[in-house]
Design goal:
With 275 residues, the protein is mainly α. It is built from 13 helices and no strands.
């Protein structure tokens, strides 16, 4: 194992992938706890489809993919908030509308333009796509997410568990929801470089759900979620290198395995308590 790790880290692109992946995993897991508890966990899936559409259109027009995708996904995040506030369109429906439309636009753009674009790298991610600029952006993003959670922890806690009461007490819930949506959008766009459109939402959902199986307090769930996400990314990357499997799929399988283990432990613990 040690020899394999030494061999892995002898490649610069793998080092960059680890830096980007660990930071994205940390950000996604922290944001995921709030999103899952607010029953808005599928926003990651919706925004990743928007990102795919933006990347595909950028490729068709010979534009810089990341420079196009970032603002488009941020706008989509704000639009999702607006739609979800409409009593006639709930959050799930809003996500479905935007994600399906964006995916269709992306596929149509590539088909019409006739560019020779490898859609697999967009759909399933590619380690080789990570750059030094991605690592720098992830560092800035990670600092932003951690600072927001530390400074505004109590307000995020209030908005997460009882948004209506928080709004009644004068808390500017819209501001905090917007900040969370903005950070989520940035995390999705950067994470797509490794995980891909179809798999990035797993980094948001699995660590939070796994932590909630055993942890019962908001703070412990956040801490456990961050630790689990980083560990699963490391295990997934190691398995990907050793078994020559796709990195994104390996990371998701590692997260799914941990979730099943934690769910089993919770079931056993519950049965022991009842008996």
């Amino acid at each position: 194992m040690i020899q394999t790790l030494v061999e892995m880290f002898s490649y610069n692109f793998i080092i960059r992938a680890f830096i980007v992946g660990i930071l994205v995993s940390l950000c996604a897991s922290l944001l995921g706890v709030t999103l899952v508890l607010k029953r808005y966990s599928m926003i990651g899936d919706g925004l990743s489809h928007v990102g795919f559409g933006a990347l595909a259109v950028a490729a068709a027009l010979n534009l810089a993919p990341l420079e196009v995708a970032v603002p488009v996904v941020i706008i989509a995040a704000f639009l999702l908030l607006r739609l979800s506030e409409n009593s006639k369109i709930n959050g799930d429906a809003a996500i479905a509308i935007i994600s399906s439309t964006s995916l269709a636009v992306g596929v149509a753009a590539v088909s019409i333009s006739g560019v020779n674009t490898d859609l697999n790298s967009y759909l399933f991610g590619s380690i080789l796509a990570t750059t030094t600029a991605d690592a720098v952006m992830c560092g800035i993003l990670a600092v932003a997410v951690i600072v927001v959670f530390v400074i505004f922890y109590n307000k995020i806690f209030a908005v997460t568990f009882d948004e209506s009461f928080s709004k009644a007490t004068g808390l500017r819930t819209g501001v905090y929801n917007t900040v969370i949506a903005l950070l989520t959008a940035m995390t999705i766009v950067i994470g797509m470089r490794i995980m891909g459109t179809l798999l990035i939402s797993a980094l948001i959902i699995f660590p939070a759900l796994s932590s909630m199986r055993l942890c019962k307090h908001f703070k412990t769930v956040i801490i456990c979620s961050g630790i689990l996400s980083i560990c699963c990314f490391f295990v997934g990357m190691y398995a990907s290198y050793s078994l020559d499997t796709p990195a994104g799929a390996s990371v998701v399988i590692a997260n799914a395995a941990v979730f099943l283990i934690f769910a089993a432990v919770e079931a056993v613990k519950t049965r022991i308590i009842k008996s």
